[in-house]
């Protein structure tokens, strides 16, 4: 089941940047406006999903720490990260910007080792090195 969600995520995240690049380039729109439109759309859609699946009641039982952590994550990834990504996408080629911005798992892996004290394994280090080699190849 997990692989179905992985495949869907890859397809959705792979197609969205092309639409983003077209939208940013064709209308001379400020990237902040694009992030705002994307955020409103996501909030409306996910609000519908939460309501339709009967999960809305979970919002009332959410503790303040968890809510604050999600808010900080939203600030970093959904607001600032999306804005800087849209700025880069507007100025650069999608075929270069998207893979380079897609190297965030390297940062996440390193922070996982340092902050969350996750195990460092040979396989994980090799995976990170492969991503770095991929970055080097794409930047050309």
> Fraction of residues in helices?
over 70%
Q: On the 0-100 scale, what is the average pLDDT?
A: 91
Which segments are poorly predicted (pLDDT under 50) over 5 or more consecutive residues? Answer: none
Spell out the helices and strands N to C: HHHHHH
Radius of gyration: 18 Å
**Overall structural domain count:** 2
The major pleated sheet works out as: none
Strand elements, count: 0
Overall geometry comes to: globular
Strand content: under 5%
Category from helices, strands and their pairing: mainly alpha
Number of helices: 6
Cα distance spanning the termini: 37 Å
- This entry's quaternary arrangement is single chain
Descriptive key words:
single chain, 140 residues, mainly alpha, 2 domains
In brief:
The protein is mainly α. It contains 6 helices and no strands.
Molecular structure report:
This protein has helices at residues 2-26, 31-52, 64-91, 94-101, 104-114, 122-138. The protein contains six helices and no strands. Helix 2 (31-52) crosses helix 3. It is mostly helical. The chain has two domains: 2-92, no CATH class; 103-140, no CATH class.
Tell me the layout of helices and strands.
Elements: H1 2-26, H2 31-52, H3 64-91, H4 94-101, H5 104-114, H6 122-138
Helix pairs in contact: 2-3
């Amino acid at each position: 089941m997990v692989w179905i969600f992985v495949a869907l995520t890859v397809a959705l995240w792979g197609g969205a940047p092309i639409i983003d690049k077209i939208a940013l380039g064709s209308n001379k729109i400020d990237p902040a406006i694009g992030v705002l439109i994307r955020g409103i759309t996501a909030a409306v859609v996910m609000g519908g999903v939460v309501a339709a699946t009967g999960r809305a009641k979970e919002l009332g039982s959410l503790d303040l720490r968890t809510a604050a952590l999600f808010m900080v994550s939203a600030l970093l990834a959904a607001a600032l990260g999306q804005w800087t990504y849209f700025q880069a996408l507007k100025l650069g080629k999608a075929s270069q910007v998207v893979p380079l911005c897609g190297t965030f798992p390297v940062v996440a892996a390193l922070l996982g080792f340092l902050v969350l004290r996750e195990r460092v394994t040979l396989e994980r280090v090799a995976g990170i090195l492969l991503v770095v080699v991929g970055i080097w190849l794409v930047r050309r």
